[in-house]
Amino acid sequence: GAGVSQSPSNKVTEKGKDVELRCDPISGHTALYWYRQSLGQGLEFLIYFQGNSAPDKSGLPSDRFSAERTGGSVSTLTIQRTQQEDSAVYLCASSLTGANTEAFFGQGTRLTVV
Amino acid sequence: QKEVEQNSGPLSVPEGAIASLNCTYSDRGSQSFFWYRQYSGKSPELIMSIYSNGDKEDGRFTAQLNKASQYVSLLIRDSQPSDSATYLCAVTKAAGNKLTFGGGTRVLVKP
Predict the structure, then answer these.
(1) CA gap B84, B74 in Å, rounded
(2) Which residue has the higher pLDDT, B2 or B88?
(3) Which one, out of A74, A77, A85, B78, has a CA that is 20 to 30 A from the CA of A112?
(4) How far is A54 from B100, CA to CA, in rounded Å?
(5) Strands A109-113 and A88-95, sheet pairing
(6) Interatomic CA distance for residues B29 and B68, integer angstroms
(7) Which one has a higher pLDDT value, B2 or B23?
């Protein structure tokens, strides 16, 4: 596609439920990043994919968070047993190769846990 | 010490003036440097990338990189009210390709 696409744009879920957030990167981009941004805060790194592998998942805050990428394209971030502190905007970015290439962001998914 | 540091601001600039934003980073082997602009409620938008020491100009924007001092800056000339946003500095470290962001500098351009 023309840009990074994320879905849904907004998600309201009840505490304790599982949610899946989807990221469709720019066609041909091999690197994919997930970040989280809480209200008024900076970008918190979650995980980085190169192809289908995740060489850096150091930012995942707990084992409730997982992510996968299939076919070197679409990525899904799953949050199990959501908590109120998981409420944030989840941002996905992709870049051509990762190394020294520009990354472009999707519009984000605003997750609200009630 | 944070990996990428920015003054949070706000940096208040009169319309038409030059806004100067600074960013320092801790990993001396960092290779790639980026500036993003983020409007309130929107996702970050890439405005500049710089990979080698010196200046790089794109329209009203100039990025400056000094690897010896571990310092990257962004100048916005002829600042406009539409430039009011948070500006994020991002760095790719030497080991791996994780893109690490600073906390951002909020810029307010006053008419």
Answers:
(1) 14
(2) B88
(3) A74
(4) 16
(5) antiparallel
(6) 10
(7) B23
- Is B7 within 8 Å of chain A by CB? no
* B44: closest chain A residue by CA: A105
Write the residue in B31, B46, B104 that is nearest to A104 by C-beta: B46
Q: 């679409």: which residue's tokens? A: A74
CB contact A39 to B (< 8 Å) = no
Percentage of chain B exceeding pLDDT 90: 86
Are A105 and B103 in contact (CB < 8 Å)?
A: no
Beta strands in B27-69 (DSSP E): 32-38, 45-50, 54-58, 61-66
pLDDT at A69: 97
Mean pLDDT by 10 residues, chain A (114 residues): 92 98 96 94 93 92 96 96 98 87 95 98
pLDDT at residue B93 greater than cutoff 80: no
Element (H, E) at B13: strand B11-14
Select from B43, B92, B97 the Cβ nearest to the Cβ of A106: B43
CB pairs under 8 A between A and B: 59
Instruction: Report d(CA A88, CA A112) in Å as an integer.
Output: 7
Band (pLDDT 50/70/90 cuts) for residue B55 is very high
Distance in Å, alpha carbon of A82 to nearest chain B alpha carbon: 23
What backbone torsions phi and psi does residue B83 show, to the nearest 5 degrees? -80, -5
**Facing A103 at nearest CB: one of B51, B99, B103:** B99
Confidence band, pLDDT 50/70/90 cuts, at residue B2: confident
